[in-house]
Amino acid sequence: MMSQLAxxxxxxRDILTLAISNEEEDSRIYQCFADQVRGIYPHSAAVxxxxxxxxxxxxxxxxxxxxxxxxxxxxxxxxxxxKGFLKRRPVWLIQNLGVDKxxxxxxxxxxxxxxxxxKSADRVLDISIRSLLLKLAELERSHEKKTxxxxxxxxxxxxxxxxxxxxxxxxxxxxxQPGLAGLMDGSVSTLAPVFAAAFATHGNWPxxxxxxxxxxxxxxxxxxxxxxxDDGSLTGRGSPWIRGAICGLMTTIGGxxxxxxxxxxxxxxxxxLVATGIATAIVLAELWVIAWIRAKFMDTPFLQxxxxxxxxxxxxxxxxxxIGSA
Length: 326
What we know:
Layout: H1 12-37, H2 42-70, H3 91-94, H4 99-121, H5 127-146, H6 159-189, H7 191-201, H8 204-229, H9 240-257, H10 271-297, H11 302-325
Helix pairs in contact: 1-2, 1-4, 2-5, 4-5, 6-8, 6-9, 6-10, 6-11, 7-8, 7-11, 8-9, 10-11
């Protein structure tokens, strides 16, 4: 598999191509927002409509310059070819956002786009391209201010409230998301090896060693995967190594939680059953915590989050027992 490119490795042609495709996609997202809320929040719809039109204008400015410099055909580079490039929600998620979440999403999108233009402007030598990128960065920054007035009756109008909302969103991006990803992976992915070892050996110490190895191994893997996936310079997600450390630590904690009960010494009557009972209770607690975090921070209804997490965890749990008992 071809490795992703860093921003420093992109040519001026690549940068303009990515900017054109990003403006086109953002315009479609804002148009989708406008269409969804027009009947209920006409003021917010009008702002989204205006932002969509602005993005189409930005796209045209970029493409006109691109044709002047490089001709009609865009570079084949795609956003997934670039490490840490701007990521957008899948269409099915965009269609299920409330109006306040749309505003928050728009603020993050504009911040990321402005960061991309500013970082890219430092990379290019062509004066005309650099000038346009800096101009677009300024325009994207101005878009962030437009979203502040969209919430009508539910809008929070004070500077303090707006700052608190921004801090909350950044906290979710930089800490909650990587931590939750790690906790989910650690809690669920280690269920099969731990309980397979438990039912295969009926020994607490061998099971503990398998669980410890699986937890630490998964923590290291997830930590590096998170750190290397996005350097944070364009997405605003913060230091990659902090996110990687959080993700790796939470992955390890998720696996260690239901591994520790197997430290119950074999001298205890029915030691294996005692340890397995405690481990099972801890698994249920872990899955409940994951569902609660998803409901609180990730805009997922609690019952839906609980069903998804419990169903997935139960399947892995059963798989481990069946494999260990074979």
